[in-house]
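agent> fetching stored inputs for the pyridoxal-5'-phosphate docking request
agent> found them:
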Amino acid sequence: MRLRRWKSALAFATLGDVMNAANVPDLPAMPADIASRWMLDPRITFLNHGSFGAVPRIVFDAHTEWRRRIESEPIERIAPLRGGRGLLEEAKKPVAALMRMRGDDFGLVTNATEGVNAVLRSLEFKAGDELVTTNHVYNAVRKAMQYVARRQGASYREVVVAFPTRGEDEIAQAVIDGLGPRTRLLVIDHVTSPTALIFPVARITRACRERGIEVLIDGAHAPGMLDLDVPGTGATYYAGNLHKWCCAPKGSGFLWVDPGRQRDIHPLIISHHLDEGFAIEFGWQGTRDVSAWLAIPESLKFLADLGWDRVRQYNHALALWAHRWLPDRLKVQQCSPADGHLLGSMVTLPMPAPLDSLDETQALAMQRRLYDEYQLEMPLMVWNGRCYLRIAAQVYNTPAQIERAASIVEKVVNERR
Ligand SMILES: Cc1ncc(COP(=O)(O)O)c(C=O)c1O
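agent> prediction call returned; pasting tokens
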């Protein structure tokens, strides 16, 4: 049932939020107290779930409880041959079920950056081999690729994927046309960070397999945002985050590897269990705090109880509404097709002129100002020489918050005109 229930969440919107009735999107119903199930400061208009996620209170408590349990019996809880391995296997089960993975085919890591690095730094490249990605790549991943290429005498190249984009055909074609005879590895985002697009990864992996090119999917944003079948993507390697759209504690990510390639892929930390099996190696990387991983099931249960479909529908509908309504309001162009088929729970739009020409330092200062003066947490990013804003929609967000963000952007833009 799709009801106009956003008003129930208005308690979370800050003073000054005014909704124009004509602008109300259709959103699935959410419990009236949804926003207060998170710990976010209600004085802040928080439109940046995309960067680090945010944990619901109940997940925070479960995480804290795991820390307490570990400290009450450190050996029993974390030593792999005592309780540790079993606890991690239990924690992995709902992750496996959600993303259709076999438990033995993925390991838990701290974040997507670690997963990507584990793959890149396990692979061997020859002089002349090429590591390819797109110009939408996340900067930390770009650096890791450049580092590995530099150390092994390989080369690094970015294929240009146009933005604004006309649709997935254009994206798939640009990437496939950009593969070369020396391309050994393609790193492709599932959901891009600066431009917030869902890339058609299955089409791209198919083309790569036909050419004998391995594919590492950077799925930092996809788990939870998309109904994800990790092996079904056709990737050779898939690194994902759970602390973003699965709302797990920070420090929760995973790396899935095609069974045929697991022998060659090792964690960044080589420890006791080298060559004893992919999942076992990843299960012990030295003494560390595994409490975030052990709390993952609580976050998945929290979202499952709300209803995964409902959560995704709400987030997508809100992002789609922003995608359709904000460009008119701010007099900027839409950057992907109006039907929203390339959008999940986020949307990127150019800042209105003249703020679209802010450089990185100025964009950072403006973001800081939005926070300090207006208590608006919304990322601004400079990509390909232009400054963009990105709106993330999580179930605790409301249309009123997005309208408030629009009013603030208009205000700071008008000051510059
Ligand atoms: C596309 C993409 N890749 C990788 C990352 C890195 O995530 P983390 O810092 O959790 O490793 C991010 C973070 O926002 C991202 O958006």
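agent> quick read of the result: The CA atoms of residues 122 and 265 lie 5 Å apart.
agent> awaiting further instructions
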